[in-house]
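In the design runs reported in the main text, the only information available to the sequence generator was the tokenized backbone. The following block is the verbatim input for one such run; it is reproduced so that readers can re-run the procedure and compare outputs position by position.
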């Protein structure tokens, strides 16, 4: 009931809904187009249902979140599931990303102070999750929205395919807004979660490129659609809380102070963290895969440098 009233209050405040003159839930649901002939539509349950009932009556109202070690699904660092309405799932998703994603550091020309920001723009990831909740196929009983965080990317996956002839490439150009679940999308719009219909993917791309990231990738895989955010050249900070990322930042800090690069044994000896040589090798390999470090030479004689410095020197 609180979510229904909050939605209407926000819609009235932003001018996206006329003042209904009542706060009775039945009247509000009717005004939102979610109650017809005295019958609640399934969109009403998806938007405002209680978690306890949805878990058993509409189990596809599900959010799956995971943090994987490395760049594949070989090992979990975190793995959870949440049942609930669309607003609750969006809140769980934002909290998971806020607690899980590292902070990225960058420097701007003419500024000495390092700028620390979330690795992926929160408005872009919120748009991706909101789109997944609005456009997914709720008719599939085993469906869900999934968030998968890897060392090098974030994937937002929703059950269902693209409809109305849309393709992943077309989503990054001007296209007509034809939501698969129009009542859910319209309620999200009125709540202020979706700002403009038909611009969700364009907004994600604009926010990502403005943050120095590649444009998000959209892919259809079987009966799912996945939006993938990949990292740019930013450096994860110690706020990530994961040992591998801490070692990566510490190594990059060492390399930044070494004009001639460093050998593996030198990095291992100078690293301020308690890490084995094998762990240092793994962190270096991850940095190389992310395009942040380069090595010249082979074997024990190989020397490591920050990739950005190598480009500048050339």
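Verbatim output:
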């Amino acid at each position: 009931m609180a979510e229904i009233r909050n939605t209407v209050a926000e819609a009235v405040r932003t001018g996206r809904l006329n003042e209904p003159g009542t706060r009775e839930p039945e009247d509000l649901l009717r005004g939102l187009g979610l109650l017809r002939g005295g019958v609640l539509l399934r969109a009403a349950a998806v938007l405002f249902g209680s978690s306890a009932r949805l878990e058993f009556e509409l189990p596809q109202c599900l959010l799956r979140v995971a943090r994987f070690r490395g760049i594949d699904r070989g090992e979990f660092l975190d793995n959870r599931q949440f049942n609930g309405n669309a607003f609750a799932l969006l809140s769980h998703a934002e909290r998971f990303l806020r607690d899980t994603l590292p902070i990225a550091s960058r420097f701007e020309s003419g500024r000495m102070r390092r700028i620390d920001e979330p690795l992926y723009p929160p408005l872009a990831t919120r748009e991706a999750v909101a789109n997944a909740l609005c456009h997914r196929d709720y008719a599939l009983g085993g469906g869900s929205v999934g968030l998968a965080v890897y060392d090098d990317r974030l994937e937002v996956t929703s059950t269902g395919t693209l409809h109305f002839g849309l393709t992943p490439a077309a989503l990054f150009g001007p296209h007509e807004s034809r939501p698969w679940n129009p009542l859910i999308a319209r309620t999200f719009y009125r709540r202020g979660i979706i700002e403009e219909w038909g611009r969700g993917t364009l907004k994600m791309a604009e926010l990502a490129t403005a943050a120095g990231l590649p444009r998000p990738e959209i892919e259809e895989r079987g009966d799912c659609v996945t939006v993938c955010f990949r990292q740019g050249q930013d450096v994860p900070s110690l706020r990530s809380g994961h040992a591998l990322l801490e070692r990566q930042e510490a190594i990059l800090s060492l390399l930044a102070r070494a004009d001639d690069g460093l050998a593996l044994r030198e990095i291992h000896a100078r690293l301020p963290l308690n890490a084995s040589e094998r762990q240092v090798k793994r962190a270096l390999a991850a940095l190389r895969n992310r395009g942040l470090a380069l090595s010249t030479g082979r074997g024990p004689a190989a020397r490591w440098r920050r990739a950005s410095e190598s480009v500048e020197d050339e």
